[in-house]
Specification:
Elements: H1 2-22, H2 26-46, H3 50-74, H4 89-113, H5 122-132, H6 134-161
Length: 162
Amino acid sequence: MSWILFIALAVLTLGGGLGVVATRNVVHAALALLLSLLAVAGIYLILFAEFLAIVQVLIYGGAITIVLLFAIMLTRTAEYPRITDNRQWPLAAVASVATLAVLAGSFWTKAAVDTQPHNPALTDLANSLFTRWAIPFEIASLVLLVALIGAIIIARESEEGT
């Protein structure tokens, strides 16, 4: 049963990722990103990593997606020319396929060499997160907050000026 659930969540993750890069509507891309991030949280639950699943939902699924949606809504699209297809998309496609090949090769090499998976204890992960990584996490959240406040101020100034 867990194998079937994993396949379904993997399909949702990949489908959300493809939706992010394939859609022309940035709001739809943000929602596809949310779908992909929530499916990754489901994969964490299958692996019995409940803490990582909760962090995935709260931080990425919640906070980052909300900040992206606010940034999209506060962007003044009338000031930018209509964006057309980029002529470099074939180069980007080749680069993405090459990246996929390198990642798949490293995954298969690692899987063949490492037969015993390393499972750190949850207490070690929590101690590391709340001691060593607490300050960088708070700095990142402050940077996101400043960016959100800046976007609101820029949007207000344009409304008052018109």
